[in-house]
Design goal:
This protein is mostly helical. Helices cover 77% and strands 0% of the residues. The chain folds into two domains: 2-65; 73-188, no CATH class. The protein contains nine helices and no strands. The longest helix has 34 residues, at 2-35. It is elongated, with a radius of gyration of 22 Å.
């Protein structure tokens, strides 16, 4: 009888362990699918998949608690017009247009209900609902920061504007196919 009890206990432990592993794998796959390259970035940043997954799940909970909403048609039109002006402004003042694009993105975020505190928090919040374009936001911001330090050229600023436009259009729910892949700061500096 004791051997039967041991076998039942061992079987229960094995089933529980398999269930736990299956649950973790499903959680990981779900987060990878939802966050895309942002998942890999957060894992790299935290050095541990479990920690990174907790961070991403906390992001989701935070954003779910916010009152994020689509733009009203009048706001979409107003922001679209402002964007067209900034794009045209780029020819005369690329640096100024980049600063204005960053400001405009923050304004759209605020009207939609996103908190617009520090950049990292904005990017984290955006990654929940817009995971495919958060990389563009980070790349644009990196270039804008390099510009502030006098370390960018007009081509860099053009790429920043393209990155900002990709995020901007996604925030306005005017998705477009992005032809230019995201290039990280290290690639731009080469």
């Amino acid at each position: 009888m004791n051997a039967l009890v041991v076998i039942v206990i061992v079987a229960a432990v094995i089933i529980a362990a398999l269930g736990f592993m299956f649950s973790r794998r499903k959680r990981t796959e779900s987060l990878k699918q939802k966050f895309g390259s942002e998942y890999d970035r957060v894992v790299h940043e935290h050095g541990d998949a479990s920690k990174a997954e907790r961070v991403l799940e906390n992001r989701q909970k935070r954003v779910e608690a916010l009152r994020i909403h689509p733009l009203e048609p009048a706001d979409k039109e107003r922001f679209s017009e402002l964007w067209r002006r900034e794009q045209a402004h780029f020819v005369d003042d690329p640096g100024g247009a980049i600063i204005a694009a960053d400001t405009l993105v923050r304004e759209v975020m605020a009207v939609r209900g996103y908190p617009v505190g520090d950049f990292e928090q904005r990017a984290a919040d955006i990654s929940v609902d817009h995971p495919k374009v958060v990389e563009h936001y980070r790349a644009a911001r990196d270039i804008a920061e390099r510009h502030r330090r006098g370390e960018s050229n007009t081509e860099d600023l053009r790429r920043a504007m393209v990155h900002y436009r990709t995020l901007f259009e996604d925030l306005l729910d005017q998705r477009v196919v992005q032809n230019e892949p995201v290039r990280h700061v290290e690639e731009i500096n080469r």
